[in-house]
């Protein structure tokens, strides 16, 4: 069956309180947070749950749909055993035994499940220095800026793209962004404000934009 994502008052009612979310166990936090972000309140990637991609692993798809996403949306809680079941399947597919006990980078998890296991086409097309790269998510890399004390996601994405010389080749169907983090001992920012909308106008390659001086179509860009 299919349970729609939670929205507005329903999301607050179902997801708030004790014993809600995805239960952590044995360094699963990276996967728990990624799965919650992707599926609890959004249907953008529901094709991962149903669509028969070429080379798609049906057992992984059914575990993801029936044991994790549907219970999360229906009751607001997913037990650790369900996530461990998924981790065991990913261990077999990825030929990496540490997926069941070690902490991984969310990007490594997303690349494995989307590319190797489900066979989904890359979600992002980026260009830097004339070279194009396809990927499934974007991790924010940037130098510490004293002026940004409590930044929002819009500011972080713009600063990161600018400092890395990156542009989006096309408007992505889904823009997964990994916030900057540096383990348990050092955090670049104590808090990051979620941007409920993301303006990618200035991030798009060769996108028509307005001149800030005369209002006509701009012909030059000053970083």
List keywords for this structure.
alpha/beta; single chain; Cathepsin B, Chain A; 2 domains; 3-stranded antiparallel β-sheet
List the topology elements.
Elements: H1 8-15, E1 21-22, H2 29-39, H3 47-50, H4 58-75, E2 77-78, H5 80-94, H6 106-117, E3 124-128, E4 131-135, E5 138-139, H7 153-164, E6 166-168, E7 177-178
Parallel strand pairs: 1-2, 5-7
Antiparallel strand pairs: 3-4, 3-6
Q: Would you identify the regions where 5 or more consecutive residues have pLDDT less than 50?
A: none
Question: Strand arrangement, largest sheet?
Answer: 4-3-6
Output the helix-strand order.
HEHHHEHHEEEHEE
Structural class: alpha/beta
Query: In the CATH classification, which architecture of the largest domain applies?
Result: Alpha-Beta Complex
In CATH, what is the homologous superfamily of the largest domain?
Answer: Cysteine proteinases
- Tally of separate helices: 7
The backbone outline, from C-alpha atoms, is globular
- Rg for CA atoms: 19 Å
Q: Name the average pLDDT.
A: 90
| CATH fold description of the largest domain | Cathepsin B, Chain A
Helix content: 25-40%
Which percent band covers the strand fraction? 5-15%
Q: Could you describe the 3D structure shown?
A:
The chain is an alpha/beta fold. It has 2 domains: 8-118, Cysteine proteinases (Cathepsin B, Chain A), CATH 3.90.70; 124-218, no CATH class. It is 36% helix and 9% strand. A 3-stranded antiparallel β-sheet has the order 4-3-6. It has a two-stranded parallel sheet with strand order 1-2. Helix 4 (58-75) runs antiparallel to helix 5. The longest helix has 18 residues, at 58-75.
